[in-house]
Amino acid sequence: MRLRLHATPIRAFIERARRTIFEGVATALLRSGAPASFWGEAEAHKVFTYNNLPTVSSPDDPTVYVSRRNLLQGNTKPFPLERLMAFGTAATCYIPVEKRKGGKEPAQRRSFQGVIVGYEDGMPAYRVWDLNEHVVKAVSYVFTICHEGYYTFGTSPIGKGVAPRALRVLSYSGRTPHYR
Description:
Layout: H1 10-32, H2 39-52, E1 56-57, E2 65-66, H3 68-73, E3 89-94, E4 111-119, E5 125-130, E6 135-140, E7 144-151, H4 152-155
Antiparallel strand pairs: 1-2, 3-4, 3-7, 4-5, 5-6
């Protein structure tokens, strides 16, 4: 006998989980100012965050909280929560010496402005949208400076590669530069 999904009490649980993900993705897109074409990246970001937050008590020790991913993998190694970033957060990404193009010259590109759109699966890295080249790149946590609270999609047009408004230097008066 086949069990119909709509006839089971688990359907309500599944619908609520699906709706939670959907609402989180919509909120992330609206808050960051990202275009609708980034829906898939925002959804992957939301699911990753949902699976890595320690919200379930451990079967071994009820006083310890673990993530859903820990339960599936059978370990208690926590995800470093300081690595969690909001979708659309502005980032400056360092380009390692061995990956730089061109010779050693003053105009050599040593970093790029980007936007965090997710997490790379299987490696400690963010998925970062390069504002100049218009591609998603995997960038190690170590080579990324995150500008929390600044959302580049909402302040600079995609396609122009303009540095985030919040990061532009507003004064060169000989004093320490002011940032907005």
